[in-house]
Amino acid sequence: MSTIKISDDDLNTFYNQNPDFDILQFNLLNGQVNSLNWEGVEQETTLKLLKKYQRLLRINPNPEIAKRLLNTSLSPQAEQTPAPSSPTTNIESVSARSPQAARSAESSTEGQNLAASEI
After folding, report:
1. Phi/psi of residue 80, each to 5°?
2. Domain regions of the chain by residue span
3. Which residue in 38, 35, 44 sits closest to 13, CA to CA?
4. DSSP structure string for 15-36
5. What is the pLDDT of residues 31-49, one digit of tens each?
6. Whole-prediction pTM value?
7. Phi, psi (5° rounding) for residue 37?
């Protein structure tokens, strides 16, 4: 398998200084990173980005797909909007605290569902 080169402006300097770097073979989690040339490169930021690429490339070794996935993000509104709460979710959270409270919440929910169906 050939060495994968990632075309990302944030990694150009890193790759120019480390031309033999193989992202799929290199262990980014141990002291081996100290053997790389970090001159003029923000090591912490670059290392975080390399780790993200490495995880994605282990799933699919196409660097363009990895880049698209990294550049795709949720809209700020979607990230801040909490998931809707369902009666089942409420019962489960109550049951974790108290079985009696869970039975009470469950019968309350059943009453609400029955009343709603009669409308």
Report:
1. -95, -15
2. 9-72, 87-118
3. 38
4. HHH-TT--TTTS-TTSGGGGGS
5. 899 999 999 999 999 999 9
6. 0.59
7. -90, 110
